[in-house]
Amino acid sequence: MPDSLQFAITNTTDSNEVYAYVSGIAIQHNGQRCLMKANGRDLYFPSSPSTILQPLAEDCAIPLGPSGNTINITIPQIAGGRLWFSVNGKLTFLLNPGPALVEPSVLNPSDPNAHVDFGFCEFTLNNDQLYANISYVDFVPRLPIAISLENADGSVERVAGMGPDGLDRICDALRAQASRDGRPWDKLVVQHEGRSLRALNSTHGNAVGASFDGYFEPYVEKVWQKYRHDTCRIDTQAGPGVLQGRINHKDEFVIGDEAFSKPNTADILGCNSGPFTTGPLATRNAIIPRLAAAFVRSTLLCETEHPSHPRTFFKEDPTNHYARIVHECQKDGKGYAFAYDDVQPDGGDDQSGKVNGGAPTLFRVVVGGRGGGGDEAAPRQQQQSQQQSQPPPIPANKPSMQQQQSGQAAQTPPPIPGGKPAHRGLRGHFNELTQKFL
Fold first, then answer.
1. Strands 62-63 and 54-55
2. Do the beta carbons of residue 95 and residue 385 sit within 8 Å?
3. C-alpha triplet 349, 352, 354: angle, nearest 5°
4. What is the pTM of this model?
5. What is the pLDDT of residues 233-253, one digit of tens each?
6. How does the average pLDDT of the chain come out, rounded?
């Protein structure tokens, strides 16, 4: 596995003002938080400020050049990395004591990036592999991103992302769903200057007055009624194997020897609270992604074997229509729409929008939604080869308003290792990979 990897980034937007930023944890530099400098060769390690919300000492915006241009940068080993992009304006990163990097937030209306058109993809490059994905776990940006990974054996993995009109299609579908069921899917659409800027995940609905309280509760009751008499089977795809589940006399869903209480809507949308809180028990932690995904996709009433096939997803109401719509509006149907969107049956078609390989030779990112979805050989490339062989960055900090005011930077989880990387969920995947290599 190389100490560094070439990233080829292509601008297919209709703008000549597109910037990239790289943030993460520098594996080769004792796990220091870092950003890549604007020259694309050197790493910037911010020092700790004495007060909160201080500016960076470096301008870390890497210009992509005019539409159609490709630049090459070389990324060192980085855990919990993010490759950010902005159009027609730069992003503002701030520092809190620590140093803690305050990254752009879509939930804080006072954030300096609140009206900036930006998006990101996530990656970890370590001694074992490159793992990368496009993520809609927090929001869908206006700016489409596609990725592809070329491996030493000649194989190529691709995630096509959205077309240039992807966000508009998603927003139209959210509005249509709101008209059908009266739920506030339409309020997830964030507009600026008369056009849709992004769509928030329903997990964050309360930030824009879109409350889904009580949404999944009727479905949970039906699941409990069904499995008082029927038996479900969950394949942990790990050591515990296939476990059977039924409702016991205490009104608990017992799967194997693990008992789960009824989740509420927030538990299901977030996948990380209530009965879906992970802990020290390996078997329970293997059940949680598969059980949570079955609730999000509304497959527990129509199927008894889980994970079930993708053709069974989102077919019954209530369901997570944000996740359904996001998948429908991707060129290839792939992209993380919730934290455990990588759960799939063995041999099934991956839904999660990830690429990974242990012998990578080139990672391509195409911004703008035009072209071959991450697989083009860099159009009109005036390839600025910006060599870099230095350390790597950490996970994403999405500070809320309260965190910014208190000087805390929220640490957004990163990728996982070992076992079945495609079955552990986005949150777990980034966390494990970061912990393993620091």
1. unpaired
2. no
3. 100
4. 0.87
5. 999 999 999 999 999 999 999
6. 87
